[in-house]
């Protein structure tokens, strides 16, 4: 694990609700780096495209990634949600109106360096006259980065459901865990090697978007071992690079390749040897 000086990086996810065409928010991207004990103001513009007035609620949520790397916004995930305050809990916009809304980010003095993942959520709510409109929601992902010295650390686990393959295809699962304090980009490859350690083929791995701090990701993939020709013991050498310092971790899965034709041949030879041995005993 290495320590690196904080670099400002922004990752923004723009989540559109089912009725996102009814209103919009801009900008969709924020770059927020705040020192402990300091504050910063964000400005968002809400645009009501509905042909009638619409009430909007403003809220702050936390964000996590599921095992597939998808963003999940839920309130109560992170104490840092209380660090961001909208200027109002709700606003009403006339048809065609645009309005600027301010969010104040106040970072406590004792906040530790690292990334915090928050959502700035705007949602349409029932009109005051009792008429219910179809709810729509827009959530902009804010990565709030607390300046300071941070850590990058990633762990890797690999597992194959079987260590014997008949065809040139080895399914396996990777489990990545970000143990650091910031989000990290990940990339990787798997190298097919023979029993002597000689590289036969290199295949890139699709690992998804950045892995945020404190989360795990499970990836089901497969080794397409097209350059394996002879039966025998082989290895899938999995190499993962991550972080802004391009660190490397690896894991190896050993497996046997025995094509069906070869298996049938070996089986027939074993049967033949057993028959010969049985006949010799009779004599």
Roughly what fraction of the amino acids lie in strands?
A: over 45%
| CATH superfamily membership of the largest domain | Immunoglobulins
Assigned CATH architecture of the largest domain: Sandwich
Structural class: mainly beta
Q: Order of SSEs, N→C?
A: EEEEEEEEEEEEEEEEEEEEEH
Count of folded domains = 2
Q: How many beta-strand segments?
A: 21
Shape: elongated
Rg measurement, Å: 28 Å
Keywords: Membrane, Transmembrane, Transmembrane helix
Organism: Candidatus Magasanikbacteria bacterium RIFCSPHIGHO2_01_FULL_47_8
Transmembrane segments: 255-276
Protein name: Alpha-galactosidase NEW3 domain-containing protein
Topology:
Blueprint: E1 2-5, E2 14-16, E3 23-26, E4 32-34, E5 39-48, E6 54-65, E7 71-74, E8 84-86, E9 90-93, E10 98-106, E11 114-125, E12 137-146, E13 149-152, E14 154-159, E15 164-165, E16 169-178, E17 186-194, E18 199-205, E19 216-224, E20 232-242, E21 247-257, H1 260-282
Parallel strand pairs: 4-12, 15-21
Antiparallel strand pairs: 1-13, 2-12, 3-5, 5-10, 6-7, 6-9, 6-11, 8-10, 11-12, 14-16, 16-19, 17-18, 17-20, 20-21
Describe the structure.
- There is one protein chain.
- The chain has 1 helix and 21 strands.
- It is mainly beta.
- The protein has 2 domains: 2-149, Sandwich (Immunoglobulin-like); 153-263, Immunoglobulins (Immunoglobulin-like), CATH 2.60.40.10.
- Residues 1-20 have low confidence and may be disordered.
Which keywords apply here?
mainly beta; 21 strands; Immunoglobulin-like; 52% strand; 7-stranded mixed sheet
């Amino acid at each position: 694990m290495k320590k690196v000086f904080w670099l400002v990086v922004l990752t923004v996810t723009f989540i559109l609700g089912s009725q996102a065409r009814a209103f919009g928010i801009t900008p969709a991207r924020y770059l927020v780096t705040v020192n402990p004990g300091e504050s910063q103001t964000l400005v968002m513009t809400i645009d009501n495209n509905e042909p009638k007035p619409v009430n909007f609620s403003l809220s702050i949520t936390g964000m996590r990634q599921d095992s597939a790397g998808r963003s999940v916004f839920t309130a109560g995930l992170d104490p840092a949600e209380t660090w961001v305050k909208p200027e109002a809990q709700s606003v009403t916009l006339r048809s065609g109106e645009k309005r600027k809304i301010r969010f104040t980010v106040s970072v406590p003095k004792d906040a530790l360096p690292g990334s915090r993942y928050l959502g700035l959520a705007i949602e349409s709510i029932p009109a005051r006259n009792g008429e219910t409109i179809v709810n729509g929601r827009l959530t902009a992902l804010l990565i709030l980065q607390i300046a300071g010295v941070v850590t990058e650390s990633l762990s890797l686990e690999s597992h194959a459901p079987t260590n014997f393959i008949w065809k040139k295809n080895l399914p396996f699962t990777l489990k990545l865990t970000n143990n650091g304090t910031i989000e990290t980009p990940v990339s990787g490859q798997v190298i097919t090697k023979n029993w002597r350690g000689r590289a036969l083929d290199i295949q890139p791995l699709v690992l998804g978007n950045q892995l945020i701090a404190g989360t795990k990701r499970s990836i089901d993939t497969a080794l397409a071992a097209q350059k394996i020709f002879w039966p025998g013991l082989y290895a899938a050498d999995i190499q993962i690079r991550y972080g802004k310092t391009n660190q490397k971790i690896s894991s190896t899965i050993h497996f046997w390749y025995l094509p069906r034709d070869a298996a049938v041949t070996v089986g027939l030879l074993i049967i033949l040897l057993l028959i010969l041995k049985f006949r010799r005993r009779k004599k």
